[in-house]
């Protein structure tokens, strides 16, 4: 136990107490008889009991005793699982507490086969480090090594990962290394040096990674990253809000965390994704070039411009986006839209150059936990735009060269909102409720009138966010859309290869085309997207629309207007070889005709 500047540390196991010996470096250690599942707590200078900061399980929450867990008792069945690479992945973000009615690991397992068959390859689980209360998003974790008892036991978590691997699904875990929660945080009882004095975050004290006595803190967090990979066979991590991880050390803590996680994985491939509001691409550059070695970053720019295109709303942090065809093209080709330019909403320059990065280094999405909740009522994108635009933007998301991410229930247009919820004691619940309302006032349309927000501390707020799987059949047209697009992405080499070559061209006020180039340009694909009114091109001075050969005109391979997706039918886009008709609020994939027969029937649904 690291308890810097304290005189005595003891551990109570069941009813017996044992004094630990001081090592002289701030650590205390000793041997004591114990058995699996025994309860234990620590006392520091006679104060306590406190949970173990590195507890493997807190059966009664952060304020209760820790429990001894044998990490080797679980019998893994995934010995042939070799992990994953950054390429060709489709991520699915999920919150275990609302993913099923039961909200447990065991209840989630039966749904894994369906996700794998849909085309998902990676499950990104929102944070599970134990937190106070019976429900929450997980970003207020305080026991960083203990999977929350709200979802089951540690072995239940292992069973979930084992089952996912059996279905060919990787699992990465969202971890919070920028702050800890406000309730049940006993780290200061062991050492004040866990927290920085020169940095603050929006959620509490920053972690001390570069100040006095930061060495043990750096080890604590590096070990935590390795722990999840090693003891739970996880396939990587998603690092939350890395812009609030402050470190001026010669080796940044993110580099140390990445190195520790990869060492724990051994010869298994893992995926490490970062969230970074400042869009600092140093995070995904290799360590040899002074980077931190992550594999990918969330691309908020893609989300923001897509939401403006979908809804026309430019309030709050959408103010610096137009939702134009050029923005959608540029984000698809180059990742971040802001790579060092001035950003008026933030009143500073935003981003760094991303031009040399591969497409897989960007995680793109139309929904995630934050963005859905930030709509005040927790509404999903299908409630905020037209059905046609939804389908067209979904095609752009799932066929684009970046790594697409879905948020739970998105694949069947779940009607369940995703709201902010946190089960805190009364003295914290009031300020959190007020703070959430103040945060949402940045939206001009929410700041006026008598809009009533769901109480974050109310259990009914949490309950209404649970998915209803009967909607998978009720919203079958949407589910077919996602399934067919993911099949097309997997089946077509041009949509799934590691090195994607694309270019794009604006065709109209809300229309554009992306061309995916084959090696010899003889088997290219076009993705035509029109988010506006029907477009008629009587002349086409756009080189990207040119056929690969005059004898092989374009034919429709897939269309969002297919009746199976609730569309009106799929006429050819090219009319009598003379002009193009691009339907309103639609997208289509075109391929070269296989032969000289220009009347070859269109093939839909891949």
Would you write up a description of this structure?
- The chain contains 17 helices and 29 strands.
- The chain is 25% helix and 20% strand.
- With 606 residues, the protein is α/β, with parallel strands linked by helices.
- It has a domain at 498-592: Immunoglobulin-like.
- A hairpin with a 3-residue loop joins strand 27 and strand 28.
- The chain starts with 8 loop residues before the first strand and ends in a 14-residue tail after the last strand.
- The protein is elongated, with a radius of gyration of 26 Å.
- The strands form 8 sheets. It has an 8-stranded parallel beta barrel, surrounded by 4 helices. Strands 1, 2, 5, 6 and 7 form a 5-stranded antiparallel beta sheet that branches.
- Mean pLDDT is 94; it is low at 597-606.
Helix content: 10-25%
The fold-level CATH name of the domain at 498-592 is Immunoglobulin-like
Task: Report the sheet with the most strands, covering strand number, pairing sense and barrel closure.
Answer: 8 strands, parallel, barrel
Overall number of strands: 29
Unreliable residue runs: 597-606
| Mean pLDDT over the residues | 94
- Total helices: the number is 17
Termini Cα gap? 58 Å
Structural class of the secondary elements?
alpha/beta
Gyration radius (Cα, Å) is 26 Å
CATH architecture of the domain at 498-592: Sandwich
Which descriptor suits the 3D outline?
elongated
Give the amount of beta strand, in percent: 15-25%
Assembly state of the chains shown: single chain
Strand order across the biggest sheet? 8-9-12-15-16-17-20-21
